[in-house]
Amino acid sequence: MVTPTHLIVGAGFAGSVCARELAEAGKQVLVVDKRPHIGGNAFDVRDAQGVLIHPYGPHIFHTNSKRVFEYLSRFTDWRFYEHRVLAQVDGELLPIPINRTTINQLYGLELGKDQVQGYLDSVRVPCERIATSQDVVLASVGPDLCEKFFRGYTKKQWGLDLSELSAGVAARIPTRTDDDDRYFGDSFQFMPAQGYTAMFEKMLDHENITVRTGTDYREVLDGVAGAHIVYTGPIDSYYDQCHGALPYRSLSFEHVHHADTPLQQTVGTVNYPNDHAYTRITEFRHLTGEQHSGTSLVYEYPQAEGDPYYPIPRPENEALFAKYREMADRESGVTFVGRLAQYRYYNMDQIVAAALKAMEDHLAPAGA
């Protein structure tokens, strides 16, 4: 192998985009990932029954960025897919995000589209200073909808009350006054037609890229002396948690297959904000559009320990991250990019955008 100019730590979205950009710029790139596969948490694979599943939970692509969509389109065809989610509340399955249908069904009302905002204004709790996710929800939909849809789900998902999370978490979920029942409102809503893993394979298929899975990056450092490192793992781990461990939320998954049965759910995902230990059930054939005699689902159980999935947005965690970011800013031979490296609750498209920007900056001529 040619001596690499760059070592990429992690073969998920951030690492794979960086690797491709560097390779096309003529750099020699070694990509390593401690897992036995590429794709990071977006990795997909066929289960024992032949159904394409996401082992690390559902990944639904959506973006408003034409640039990100066109970039990924180089490596995949797309299947149009608009994700829909129902929440089980008071024994009913109701659309989430909350819309006119949700309110009318839940309360037995017949609000017209021009009446929904007035109803919400009548129940919401105005807040002069929005500081927490509780402030966001109460100011948007009031206390009853907060309790029915948000507080229990948040407690399970994050292990924290709404009042203990930064405002940005709840702000990710809109409230609608019409009947739009799509989970996302983005301009581009598609799934990779052949799956995420196939997309990553094409992205990493370049003569200047070498991929080694099942490999901890520390195992190869001696052989890549002088190479610039692109690090996409947890930033606190890179620095041996010298300032203390950054909190992350983890997940465990229970995958279930039902043989010779039709689809079990009417939509891709059903949330359980107040019942059961799991937060949601996703049925993969909705996402992929594949035909099969049976169906495969995944139950998600949030937990404190395990692989890091979500940075936990709280002011004290941001303050701790700032200490690591100060160290990272002083590094000349390392670029930190991605959800874990930047301690940001990024969506997939945001990770792609961050990786493209990081490589633009890195490859820019000195002084440019």
UniProtKB/TrEMBL annotation:
GO molecular function: flavin adenine dinucleotide binding; UDP-galactopyranose mutase activity
UDP-galactopyranose mutase C-terminal domain mapped to chain residues: 148-345
GO cellular component, as recorded: cytosol
Keyword tags: FAD, Flavoprotein, Isomerase
Isomerase as UniProt keyword: yes
Keyword Flavoprotein carried by entry: yes
Cofactor(s) this protein cannot do without: FAD
Family the UniProt entry places it in: Belongs to the UDP-galactopyranose/dTDP-fucopyranose mutase family.
The name this protein goes by in its record: UDP-galactopyranose mutase
Source organism of this protein record: Sphaerotilus hippei
